[in-house]
Amino acid sequence: MFKLNKKDLRTLIIVILLALFAPFLLNPFPTDSALAQFNAGYPDLMQRFVIFGIFAVGFNILFGLTGYLSFGHAAFLGAGSYAAIWMMKLLTMNIIPAIIISVIVAGIFSLFVGWISLRRSGIYFSILTLAFSMMSYQLAYSVLTPITGGETGLQPKVNDPRLLDGALAEGAIPKANLFGLDMSQSYDMSLGAWSFTFNSGYYIAAAFLILSFYLSIRIFRSPFGMMLRAVKSNQQRMTYTGLDPKPYTLAAFVISGMYAGLAGGLLVAMDTQAGAERMFWTASGEVVLMTILGGVGTLIGPVLGSGAIKYMENIISKINSDILHTWFAFLPDGLENVIVAIIYPFIGKGWHLTLGLLFMIVVIALPGGLVEGAQRLSRLFKKGKNKSNENE
Amino acid sequence: MELLEIKDLGKRFGGLQALSEINLSVMKNTVHAIIGPNGAGKSTLLNCIVGKLMPSSGSVMFDGYSLLGRSAHEINQLGISRVFQTPEVFGDLNVLENMLIPCLAKRDGAFRLHALKSIDDEKQLREKAEDVLEDMGLIDKRHMKAASMSRGDKRRLEIAMCLAQDPKLLLLDEPTAGMARADTNNTIDLLKRIKQERDITIAIIEHDMHVVFSLADHITVLAQGTPLVSDTPDNIKGHPKVKEAYLGETQQV
Ligand SMILES: Nc1ncnc2c1ncn2[C@@H]1O[C@H](COP(=O)(O)OP(=O)(O)O)[C@@H](O)[C@H]1O
Ligand SMILES: [Mg+2]
Which residue, A84, A147, A190, A195, is the most exposed by fewest CB within 10 angstroms? Predict the structure, then answer.
């Protein structure tokens, strides 16, 4: 079905189910329980999960298949965001033109950056992309202030021209919509002690994730995808087999840049603002971490990796020392204080420490990322089952 | 008829004249061997043909086209496939995928953005790839990762990948270097069979006299970057100059 083999179809269905039922899956704890802290099923965060999922899925087409490690992809995401905002200022608050233009602008920008950076490979390629992303940030932050809003960033204003939309009443806030459907519209459902939120923006972003993911499976299984793996494996052999690795790598670079642009456009569709900080090089590093954490070159890895990182960023960073004290209140006071003091550096603003630790553990113990972890678990599980069968 | 014609070819590396006044013709449907002591310039000559190195002077004509200034992938597309001294395959890919890549290159050229086709739909290419694998005795290993194969099998796969392109000229750079006697003999048999069964021209650089004399129709002896003699194997064997320059000092024929 959908021109996919059985295994790939199963992977796609898993992603679809995860996306559809995320509001339930991410809110497993009753609203009033102590563990509600760990619920992640609110619209903002769920939108981030899928949008950064798209970013990482695209990045994996470049990094996972060709092995070219770009440290500049946040620049394309940022360019997509700015383009989307401008569409909302000039044309309409409908998100469709904004998203289309964000993909196109990011595509053109990545064609330019890729064209130059791909003159080198390995570490020099990475450094070139890093240099581009730093320059882009600086341009957005200061030099191009008339286009990017500089330090303050960009937002649609009431009196922007917006050719296709009617004029707004003075003091109204322009709202992103899909043919009238407001992105921030939510429906809350209560089931006993639990509550779940279904948000229109989330589901639209999720639809884009599913589409992007499907497209990436198709690319992985195409002759083009095989050529990208050949680029990673042996460029010398490729050249003497009559193939030119350059345009293949550049095409992968541009495709991943367009994915980044889509993510940038969607960020604006969900929250109508853009600032230079989303182009900062740490944002480029984050997508590298997501891909490696989830499993480089695997289909579903980047989705899992971006989920894990965004979860930690948002959930662990919200834990503070008061919350720790309530968790460990059952311990004798002295011990409680010691334990809280040990954990404290790893929470709140220190969530990067936790991320770093997790990252180190994954890279050293599970080079295939979370996907490899899941595979090992399922093998262990199967072995256990076979054994118990034998015993019967 | 000449398939490959090299005229007055020279190559300098800074102060070193690695090749000079090379005149050499490879006839269609023959096996042409190039031999010579270490450092004679054999690999340099091959690299000048396949587009890895740009000759300093002279001309290289192949099948009516000048090869000078063309990139390596263009030269392959004209019909020259090469085998490396140490086998170069796509280690991360399985054997069948290794075969599909040259098939795709032959059909689609140096670049094509076929991102939405499925590789599983390429039935014809698959058949072609499996035919060649069958012929080379690698069909049982088609799902094996190329990196995990033995050196002998990698060499075999590399030759299979070249043959999948139906090249006009197959170039081999010391294909038996570092091989055990048994593997060497297998390779000789394989190349003999390829020569008999296919409409193909082979140019082979070789150190091993046993290989050269069992395969070649024509031999060029290279010494210090220039051809010493170019003749049939029988005439080469008895040639005093060759004995002196090369054969006598290291190997008995
Ligand atoms: N890229 C290069 N730069 C400088 N000198 C080279 C280069 N390649 C080969 N040479 C020199 O050219 C001569 C011929 O080398 P080569 O063609 O490898 O010989 P063979 O393959 O016959 O053993 C040697 O003296 C070698 O050192
Ligand atoms: Mg050599």
Answer: A190
